[in-house]
Write a structure and sequence with these properties.
Number of helices: 4
Mean pLDDT: 86
Low-confidence stretches: 27-32, 58-69
Structural class: alpha+beta
Radius of gyration: 21 Å
Distance between the termini: 63 Å
Order of helices and strands: EEEEEEEEHHEEEHHEEEEEE
Largest sheet: 4 strands, antiparallel
Strand order of the largest sheet: 5-8-17-11
Strand content: 15-25%
Length: about 325
C-alpha cells in the first residue's frame, strides 16, 4: 500500500491518482518550495497548501521557476573546504583600492546550507526553507557561535572567545559583551573570512580573474540575483563556480565577514588585514537573490548591525592554513 502525499489516503500499489482527492501519486515528487512561506510543493500544485499563495503549474523541472536543479557541489553535513593559496592583490573598486597580501587559507565551497546549520545548531531559522539552500535569518553572532560549535564537534580549537569563554550561546546578540569578542587567527578551527580573504577568493585568488562577478562577467552564469531568482534562494552550487571552485560568491545570499565596517580602506599596503578594531556594523559581501547586479560584484561592500537578520543574508566559513607562507 502507498499513501497519497496530499491527503494521506491509503492506496493500492501502482495507483497513479488518489481516489479521495485526485492528486497524482507514485512518480510525483516534491520539487519546489512556495516563494512566500517555503512550504514543499509538487510541480502541479496551483496553490500553496500552507499559505494559499497561487503558484505556477509546470510540466517539467526545466519549466519550473521555483525548482532548483541538482547541485554541482558536494553538500554534506560538514562544509567542504577549498584551499586558497595566498598572494597579493588590489582590493576594492578601481576608483579606490589598496594592496593587500594574504597568507593561504581555506574557504567553504558554498555558503553554509540549512542542512549544515541544523546539523550543528539543532534548528533551522531560515525563511526560505530547503535543506540544500543557504541558511539565512542568521545574525553575525549566530554565525560566530556556529563556527565555534562546529570546531568543537570536529576536535579543532575554536577561534572565537569572549574573555576565556568559547561557548558563546548564552550571550544575547544585543549584549555589549560582543564588543569584547576576539578571534585567534592561529587556531585551526572554523571562523568567518575577513573581508580581504572573501574578496581575494571571490576574484579567483592569485589568478585574479578579470571579472566583475565571481567567476564570470555574465552574472546569469554565476549568480542568483534580483532578475533571475524568482524572489527566492536556490540550492547552492547550481550556478557555475569561479576558478577556485567556489560557488555562489555572487548572489544567492549575502555573506557575513569578520570585519567591522569602515567607509575607507587604509592608505598603506596591508598584510592579513582584519579590519578596524572597533565599530558598530559588520561587513557583508556578495549580493543576494534580492539585489541588483551592482550589489553582486566582487568589490561591492555593505554592512549590518551584528544582531541584524534577513532572508537574503547568510555566511560561509573559513579556516587558517597554519604555517602558510606567501
Amino acid at each position: 500500500m502507498i499513501n497519497c502525499i496530499k491527503c494521506a489516503t491509503e492506496l493500492p500499489d501502482g495507483a497513479n491518482f488518489c481516489s479521495n482527492c485526485g492528486f497524482p501519486v507514485g512518480s510525483v515528487k516534491i520539487c519546489r518550495s512556495c516563494p512566500e512561506c517555503g512550504a514543499s510543493l509538487s510541480a502541479i500544485d496551483k496553490f500553496c497548501s500552507q499559505c494559499g499563495k497561487p503558484v505556477r503549474v509546470v510540466k517539467s523541472a526545466d519549466e519550473n521557476p521555483f525548482v532548483d536543479k541538482s547541485s554541482k557541489s558536494a553538500n554534506n553535513a560538514i562544509p567542504k573546504m577549498i584551499p586558497v593559496e595566498g598572494g597579493q592583490f588590489l582590493m576594492g573598486g578601481a576608483a579606490a583600492n589598496y594592496q593587500v597580501t594574504l597568507t593561504s587559507f581555506k574557504l567553504s565551497e558554498t555558503p553554509v546550507t540549512q542542512k549544515q546549520f541544523s546539523y550543528v545548531m539543532g534548528s533551522n531559522p531560515s525563511k526560505l526553507q530547503g535543506d540544500d539552500k543557504p541558511v539565512e535569518m542568521v545574525n553575525w553572532c549566530e554565525a560566530i557561535i556556529y563556527c565555534n560549535i562546529l570546531s568543537t564537534m570536529q576536535n579543532l580549537t575554536p577561534c572565537y572567545s569572549i574573555g576565556s569563554v568559547t561557548d558563546l550561546r548564552t550571550f544575547d546578540a544585543n549584549s555589549p559583551v560582543w564588543k569584547r569578542i576576539a578571534c585567534n587567527f592561529s587556531a585551526n578551527g572554523y571562523r568567518l573570512p575577513t573581508e580581504a580573504e572573501w574578496e581575494f577568493a571571490a576574484r579567483g585568488g592569485k589568478q585574479c580573474d578579470p571579472f566583475q562577478f565571481a567567476g564570470s562577467s555574465d552574472i546569469n552564469k554565476v549568480a542568483w540575483y534580483g532578475e533571475n531568482s524568482d524572489i527566492t534562494t536556490h540550492i547552492v552550487g547550481t550556478k557555475e563556480p569561479n576558478s577556485l571552485g567556489l560557488f555562489d560568491m555572487s548572489g544567492n545570499v549575502m555573506e557575513w565577514c569578520w570585519d567591522y565596517f569602515a567607509q575607507d580602506f587604509p592608505a598603506t599596503p596591508q598584510t592579513n588585514p582584519h579590519g578596524p578594531q572597533i565599530g558598530n556594523m559588520h561587513i557583508k559581501r556578495g549580493g543576494s537573490w534580492l539585489d541588483d547586479h551592482q550589489q553582486c560584484t566582487v568589490f561591492f561592500r555593505s554592512a549590518s548591525a551584528p544582531a541584524g537578520k534577513s532572508s537574503s543574508l547568510g555566511f560561509r566559513v573559513c579556516q587558517s592554513e597554519l604555517g602558510a607562507q606567501i
